[in-house]
Design goal:
Blueprint lengths: L1 H4 L5 H8 L6 E4 L6 H9 L4 E5 L3 H4 L8 E4 L6 H7 L5 E7 L4 H5 L25 H7 L2 H12 L4 H14 L5 H9 L7 H17 L1 H15 E11 L2 H13 L7 E2 L5 E2 L2 E3 L9 H6 L7 E7 L1
Parallel strand pairs: 1-2, 1-4, 2-3, 4-5
Antiparallel strand pairs: 5-9, 6-7, 8-9
Helix pairs in contact: 2-3, 8-9, 8-11, 12-13
Amino acid sequence: MTDVYHIPVLAKESIEAMNLDPGSDVVDATFGGGGHSRLILDQLRNGRLFAFDQDEDAAGNAIEDDRLFFIRHNFKYVKNFLQHYDVDKVDAMFADLGVSSHDFDVAERGFSFRFDGALDMRMNRNAQVDAATIVNEYSEAQLQQIFSLYGEIKNARRLAAEVVKARVAKRIDTTTRLKEIAAACAPRAIENKYLAQVFQALRIEVNEEMEALKEFLEASLDLLNPGGRLVIITYHSLEDRLCKNFIKTGNFEGKVEKDFYGNVQSPFVQVNRKVITPGEEELAANPRSRSAKLRIAERV
């Protein structure tokens, strides 16, 4: 089921980056199909793996293994749940921030403009706010901000105006209807890229992805042992910039602080100064990995 559900991206590189011992305690913040988790377990003997995923579909992939503790919650709560298991420190924290192939390929989840389905996009289907709520109830100014900030859409003002105009005539409840509205605003020759940005922006807002990522990164400061590794795979510039700044400076703005001697003060050492990206073989086997960037940091 794992291969069908989601092919683990940069799998070999991620495992090597964690620098695990047989007794390591590890967090996999994004269990998904369990691909990375299985590889982590292969490295452990008496260590433990704490795997998070708020998606009920991912829960169906949980591995029967006494060393695995599957936690069906958002990874922003990592600190709370590790405390529940009396775990103060771990040796590695890993997150693959991409949406699973499974979620993109199931029409009713509403993540993709390739299929007609309900405009949903909730990772946690118990959450109150879905994408339809946002496009139908947010103000034009709020929509413009979301499209501009999370989708980096240049004509966000026009798009927001078109959405508001369209919903007056009829509520926007399906991916196809939103696609039709957005396509009318898309520049020629990059329509698919534009639509991907629109859907990305809504998905990030629905799932509060940037806030969750910030909480996870901040938790890593308290949870990682000295020498412990933070290993993150990002897929778009917003989250990558956040991770890059945090690893480099310990804050999200990238504000450099120096000691008396002019040395940069950071809670991390960058293990790879140049991001690791998929090679030609992986790109051929899994085209969805094309925007993946792997960053590795070691706790000071």
